[in-house]
Amino acid sequence: MTSDRLTVLLIGYGNPGRLDDGLGPAVAEAIESLKLPGVTVEANYQLNVEDAEQLAGYDMVIFADASVNALEPFSFYRIKPKAEVSFTTHSIEPESVLGLAHDLFEAKTTGYILAIRGYAFNEFGQQLSARAKENLNAAVNFFKDAAGNGNFFDFNK
Predict the structure, then answer these.
(1) What pLDDT is stored for residue 122 in this prediction?
(2) pLDDT tens, 21-69?
(3) DSSP-derived pairing of the beta strands 74-79 and 39-44
(4) Residues 78-137: pLDDT tens digits?
(5) Which residues, in sequence order, are CB contacts of 70 under 8 Å at separation 6+?
């Protein structure tokens, strides 16, 4: 975090075998292919407490996931570290992962959610719905523009 360029970690998470729930990994794959300077990309089925150590080494972390509640095509907003950690064997909230990074590793990392609107979640399949693909493209273009300008803060939706 000592360079002039903002260092960004994007963590895309979700289950690609559950249709639009795969939006998080899909955006991670698309952003990775852009090879943007200062941007590191990870993808997983879910967030883990171990993610706290990794994100502590970045200026900014963006948690990308599918959402049934996000505005179309996506929402992007800042989150605050959560001091209390509650999780199950299946998930931990982004705010809690960020809180662990701050508490355990003295991170100064800022956190954001990139919630991409999805529609089809109740079936099995490895494809995104047509509307989710459009929202994915909009989120990737947003990210590319924001990273190119070096300033995500101007693009908050």
Answers:
(1) 84
(2) 999 999 999 999 999 999 999 999 999 989 999 999 999 999 999 999 9
(3) unpaired
(4) 999 987 655 554 578 999 999 999 999 999 999 999 999 999 998 898 999 999 999 999
(5) 115, 116, 117
Query: Cα–Cα distance between 27 and 125 in angstroms, integer?
Result: 17
Please report, for residues 10, 41, 56, 124, 139, the alpha-carbon distance to residue 30 in angstroms, rounded to integers and kept in the order given: 11, 10, 23, 22, 10
Q: Domains in the chain and their CATH numbers?
A: 8-155 (3.40.50.1450)
- For tokens 């883990």, what's the residue? 48
How many Cβ atoms from other residues are within 10 Å of residue 39's Cβ? Answer: 21
- CA dist., res. 68 & res. 95, Å (int): 19
Report pLDDT for 149. 66
Q: Which helix (H) or strand (E) holds 131?
A: helix 130-149
Looking from the CA of 91 toward its CB, the CA atoms found within 13 Å total 9
